[in-house]
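re: ur question from yesterday

yeah so i grabbed the chain u mentioned. its 79 aa long if i counted rite. heres the sequnce exactly as i have it in my notes:
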Amino acid sequence: MTERERQRRAEQSRRDRQASYTIAEWCDRRRLSLAMFYKLDQQNLAPRSYYVGRKRCISDEADAEWLAAREAETERTAA
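ran it thru and got these structure tokens back, copy pasting raw so excuse formatting
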């Protein structure tokens, strides 16, 4: 592995362990569009969020809870 690959992997690992994300960062991480996020938000299916000034953020814990809820929902509907 080259030094550049090591640096790229370290940077990706750091980004994956952020304490919180802006809405745009979270959408990038989950590969969702902003429109889909706001659609989920209107349906009360978006992850919990909080404001820092005018910026809306999602904590890593809220992301994990959201993902677990979506997986549980999928299991219920598949059964």
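noticed a couple things. Strands lie at 20-22, 50-52, 55-59. also The longest strand covers residues 55-59.
anyway ttyl
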